[in-house]
Amino acid sequence: MKWLITGGAGFIGTNTAAALAEAGEKCVLADNFYRLGAKYNRAHLRERFRLEVDYLDVRFRDQVNAYFAAHDADVILHLAGQVSLVASIRDPVYDFDANALGTLNVLEATRRFRPDARLIYASSNKVYGDLRGLRIGESDTRYVLPDYPEGLAEDMPLELHGAYSCSKGAADQYVLDYHRIYDLSTIALRQSSIYGGRQYASEDQGWVAYFVQMGVERRPFRISGTGKQVRDLLHISDLIQCYRAIARAPRESLAFGQAFNIGGGPGTSLSVIELFAKLESEYGFPMQYTAGPPRMGDQKVFIADTRKAQQHLGWQPSVPIAEGLDELVEWSRARWAA
After folding, report:
1. What is the pTM of this model?
2. Which of 6, 137, 263, 292 could disulfide-link to 80, CB 3.0 to 4.6 Å?
3. Element (H, E) at 232
4. Contacts by residues 89-96 (CB-CB < 8 Å, ≥ 24 positions apart)
């Protein structure tokens, strides 16, 4: 099986390519190297796995068409895009071009050159907006959704709020519509908080890896809001298993043309300050932070209900938080030592 991965030098793309290479599967990788850390991941893939990452900017249709015409693929994993909520507010035009227009370019190239491929799109839980219409409770350490003990399912209405939500939501809907209109085997994964090694995170994006790195480096930092914001954490290896389950699905699978909420579920949910408590007690990190105002359009709590993915894809998360954090801390320490 051959994979074509856009955003191949990013955190998710790099880990996916590494896993595929170790399993003996073929992949071609493309990236525009816009993100922090892309050059380091590119070097890692070249030195460790002899994989090259080609230059491709999905904002430009001619580039996408030429690349898809030149490379066979059974699976297209579309990860390329602008990934920061904060950056989308600073530059909504780039955000739209990278996410909405870029995805449309990928879909059109797939329709023209690779119509039999399975296309997996990395959507976002932000397509549900800030969830302010839900009843939200509060404990000493976290916000809670008392009406959704299993998490939020895919029948939640879309509520596009802010540039990032709008661009990802538009792309999400195009992906689903290209199945209905053109019979492409497309699927949208509304991913929650993915974490693991080789994530060169920043204050704007990749909160788990960013806070772990601040702990490793003993550096002071700022958080947005009270710190009671909750997400369900999904280790990168579990996400890769989800991608591979989709790749194995037959074209007639009812999973195609659908969206799935993909996260760790209620059992892996943590608030920001609960994560800090773990990092302090289990690794001895002094979490030196100050609190600022909440981010515009942020969700106080999001936990994915993954039962639909289990039903249609035979997939469910399996990596415990303790195991996943151990791996991330080890990688962060090695990065700092280097």
Report:
1. 0.97
2. 6
3. strand 230-235
4. 89/162, 89/163, 89/164, 89/296, 92/163, 92/167, 95/163, 95/164, 95/167, 96/163, 96/166, 96/167
Residues 305 and 232: their CA atoms lie apart, in Å, by 10
Block residue for tokens 């430009």: 60
Tell me the pLDDT tens digit for each residue of 201-253. 998 889 999 999 999 999 999 999 999 999 999 999 999 999 999 999 998 99
Residue 164 designated active-site:
yes
The CATH classification of domain 2-337, taken from the options 3.90.950.10, 3.40.50.720, 3.40.309.10, 3.60.15.10: 3.40.50.720
Q: What is the pLDDT of residues 98-155, one digit of tens each?
A: 999 999 999 999 999 999 999 999 999 999 999 999 999 999 999 999 999 999 999 9
CA 324 from chain centre, in angstroms, equals 16
- Cα separation, 298 vs 282, in Å, equals 28
Q: Which residue has the tokens 């509304």?
A: 190
| Cβ contacts of 193 within 8 Å, gap of 6 or more | 207, 208, 231, 232, 233, 234, 263, 264
The tokens of 158 are what? Answer: 């879309």
Write the CA distances from 89 to 161, 164, 205, integer angstroms: 11, 8, 13
Which residue in 164, 178, 195, 210 is the catalytic one? 164
CB 61 within 8 A of CB 105: yes
